């Protein structure tokens, strides 16, 4: 993990009004504003395990989520 900066600002993706320790998904954006700028991803119950991708791939993933491309992964899941 030495290539992951220690001073990142992690953004937690938790439902509005969520309480408790999670686990929650967190994202931190590295320096740079081009498509190769690093994006770091982790889960709060295992914060040492960080996956790094780049901004181009992250943006494609977010657009896919918004378009419903991954909805089949949660079919039948009770979100209440």
Structural summary, described in words:
The structure is a single chain. The protein has one helix spanning 55-66; strands at 11-13, 25-29, 38-43, 51-54. The chain has 80 residues and is of the alpha+beta class. It has one domain (11-70). Strands 1-2-3-4 form a 4-stranded antiparallel beta sheet. A hairpin with a 7-residue loop joins β3 and β4 (51-54). It starts with 10 loop residues before the first strand and ends in a 14-residue tail after the last helix. The model has no long low-confidence stretch (mean pLDDT 91). It comes from Streptomyces antibioticus. Residues 1-22 are annotated as: Disordered. This is DUF397 domain-containing protein. Residues 13-22 have a biased composition (Low complexity).
Summarize the structure.
It contains one helix and four strands.
Keywords:
DUF397 domain-containing protein; 4-stranded antiparallel β-sheet; 15% helix; alpha+beta; globular
Shape: globular
Strand ordering within the main sheet: 1-2-3-4
Distance between the termini: 36 Å
Beta content comes to 15-25%
What's the domain count?
A: 1
Number of strands: 4
- Helix-strand category: alpha+beta
Order of helices and strands: EEEEH
* Average predicted local confidence, pLDDT: 91
Which sheet architecture does the biggest sheet show? 4 strands, antiparallel
- Rg over CA atoms: 14 Å
Number of helices: 1
Query: Low-confidence stretches at least 5 residues in length (pLDDT < 50)?
Result: none
Considering DSSP H and I runs of 4 or more, what fraction of the residues is helical? 10-25%
